[in-house]
Structure prediction request, 125 residues.
Amino acid sequence: MNQDQFQSCIQACYECAQACDSCASACLQEPDPKMMARCIELDNECAAVCRLAAQLMSRGTEHAGQVCTLCADICEACADECGRHQAQHCQDCAEACRRCAQECRSMGQSGAGTGSSTSAQATSH
Prediction:
């Protein structure tokens, strides 16, 4: 796999991870952080899976497409949760998550990294 074909998705993933990290940190500074618990939880999950997806795409691994599909699902959940809050950091995060979900959904649907002959060889041994 050529990393260049994944570049816009990799960039969206890293931007989303950064937005999620910032959002989670800012949520902890809100007057009632307990009210932001679900937002913080999804921010952390989303940031982690975005970084994983970007790493796998950078390496061109056979599982990148599957992880991109999962990443899109988690980004959408995070965008929905952040979108419920009025804080600017939540709105910024929701926007980054939507962009990343769109990029990852396209990447996952393209079958990026799937159908590798290495996986076929591994199962035949």
